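Discussion board: Methods & Data

I've been asked by a reviewer to show the raw model output for two of the constructs in my manuscript, not just the figures. I'm not sure how much to include, so I'm pasting the format here to get opinions. Each protein appears as its amino acid sequence followed by a line of discrete structure tokens. Is this the kind of thing reviewers expect to see in a supplement, or should I convert it first? Here is construct A:
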Amino acid sequence: MFETNFDFDYNSYKLTAVIDCFHSEEEELRMELIGHMEKLYDELVPPEVKEQIDQEMMEEHNRQWQYDNCFALIHMHNDDDEESYFVAKGIHSLYDAASFYYHHLLDMKDEYDMDSLVQRFDSYDYVDKPVFNVLSDAQENDKRISCTVDYDFETGILTFKGNGEQESEYYDLNFLESAIERAERGGAGEAQRHDSFDADIEWYINQSQSRYSDGENEGGTMRL
């Protein structure tokens, strides 16, 4: 997962002689060279850099574990009364759900049938509604179920519930579209994109709570 290739030029006669010393076992030579690289790493890289690298490796390991083992429960429906229940990989957060909508569903949702939209997801599997509901009930105690997402193209609302969260939250798809656009403006890095998106969501929540407390949304808790 973390390996990369490192090529360099070396005299072919000398290389052949070295390989012969390992009885032509190139794997043994490779391990010997890796050992020397590890020694250089230990001797040359400052402790604070090693600490940062350890953190990055752990984060990458967690992302890979999440991709290999976790999935989202997704329900989509439109104004033609079509709907689909399925599980899919690659959606682990509200940012992921909003970004996927912006990049893969927004321009297709009014022109393509539901099956074509589902096929935009990575490693999806259809489930029926009873199974979907059972998995949804199990989400709180199953870390593999990263989130539940409902794309309602008729009302323009995305409903999201992350793993460990007690309640679902409701977001306007137009707002999420704008939040992703702002996050990705100017070629920002991953951390900056997420920070920008989170700031927009915080503002959105504060606005919706203010409207709710003022009595504008007495009929429910939907965030507009």
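Construct B, same format:
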Amino acid sequence: MPPTPTPNNNRLLTDEDVQAITDALEQRVVERFYGDLGKGVWTLVWRAIVLGILAVAVYGSTKGFK
């Protein structure tokens, strides 16, 4: 049996409500995107640093620094 309609069950969103919801959602999506992008960039930088240190170590152990 469906609930009987009351003033609280028949609420509608105004255009301003919809705009506020979409603005908040868009802001969250943008923040998450740039946060993830930043994590990815720092991961690549960290891997490049580790790779550079390993390359110097390998070069030093095979030919040495003269």
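Answer (T.O., handling editor elsewhere):
This is acceptable in a supplement if you add a one-line summary per construct. For B, something like: The chain is about 75% helix and 0% strand.
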